[in-house]
Amino acid sequence: MPLYECVFLARQDLTQSQSEGLAQKFSELLQNNGGKVTKVEHWGLRQLAYRIKKNRKGYYHLMNIEATPEVVAEMERNMRLDEDMLRFLTVRVDKFEEGPSVQMRYRPEKEEGSSSGSNYRPQDGYRARPSESLLDDSIVEEIVLDDLPSEDFVSE
Fold it and tell me: Is 109 domain-assigned?
């Protein structure tokens, strides 16, 4: 059977359990029609880059699916009809990624007293280089304006 990844967004006014119930609903729909859901990840409530159906935030979910194209089309039809659904994207993949997705690996954790919005911590080997002078002192030349011919200047 073909492999698919489906990422979808649910409305921000749902509770966490209602949002997870939505993922469970579509998982059961796939299983009842002969598909198989191998992984479901709940990425949580996140800020959207722009408003979608008057929502500034949304609950993100990822599902790895093994199903025929007809079953996936039926799932997408039900997603379009569901009022709690903001957006979805289903893509066919050659193989599933092992372990947690990239979004789960770099998931920002809430820190008490942290005022910065970003808690990203780079892995070893991906650190910024120390700043270096952009100009090499041997290349810099001094230009004296008195040495230039006077016709190059415009007088008023």
Answer: no
Model pLDDT for residues 45-99, shown as the tens digit of each residue = 999 999 998 999 999 999 999 999 999 999 999 999 999 999 999 999 888 777 6
Supply angle C-alpha 89, 95, 99, rounded to 5.
Answer: 90
Total domain count, the chain: 1
C-beta contacts of 104-110 below 8 A and 24+ residues apart? 104/41, 104/43, 107/43, 107/44
In this structure, is residue 128 part of a structural domain?
Answer: no
For residues 144 and 122, give the distance between their C-alpha atoms in angstroms, rounded to a whole number: 47
What separation in angstroms does the CA of 87 have from each of 60, 61, 106? 10, 11, 23
Residues of the domain holding 64: 3-94
**For the chain, what is the largest distance between any 2 Cα atoms, rounded to a whole number of angstroms?**
88
